[in-house]
Amino acid sequence: MIAEIPFWQRKRLAEMTQAEWESLCDGCGKCCLVKLEEEQTGEVYYTDLACSQMDSATCQCQSYGNRQQVVPECTVLTPDNIGQFHWLPYTCAYRTLAEDRPLPEWHPLRSGDPDSVHRAGVSVAHRVIPADQVPQEDWQEHIIHWVL
């Protein structure tokens, strides 16, 4: 018997169910980091500052169901807007599939283990601090390069 082809290999992003779409998130937490944009060049820099709602140990949002009410500037990715977010890290499954690349071995959908992203060193778990603990004028001092 031939194994069924996984949904992420046989469906376009726009064809996925909400549950399939949500399961693409690898739980790395990178999208929940404060990013600074260079006004003149448009270049985006990641910081080690996380949204106040992110659990820094698990990289999970503590208010996921109502995150936009708690954090109005929270970005919600959809198949329709995924192309607008040029700042998504190269490892992001949404970006990966939008660019027709295969999911990496460590992705939880491939490994069957939600912690594989952490063991692979791809997540920001235990490497960030809440942004609300740092004055905004000091955010530039928190620019990092290990995310990418």
From TrEMBL:
| InterPro entries for the chain | Puta_zinc/iron-chelating_dom, UCP006173
Superkingdom of the source species: Bacteria
Fetch the Pfam families from UniProt.
CxxCxxCC (PF03692)
- Segments spanning the bilayer are none
Extract the NCBIfam families matched here.
PRK05170.1-5, PRK05170.2-5
Q: Which family does it belong to?
A: Belongs to the UPF0260 family.
Q: Which PANTHER family match?
A: UPF0260 PROTEIN YCGN
This chain's protein is named: UPF0260 protein ACFOZ5_19460
For this protein's source organism, the top of the classification is:
Bacteria, Pseudomonadati, Pseudomonadota, Gammaproteobacteria, Pseudomonadales
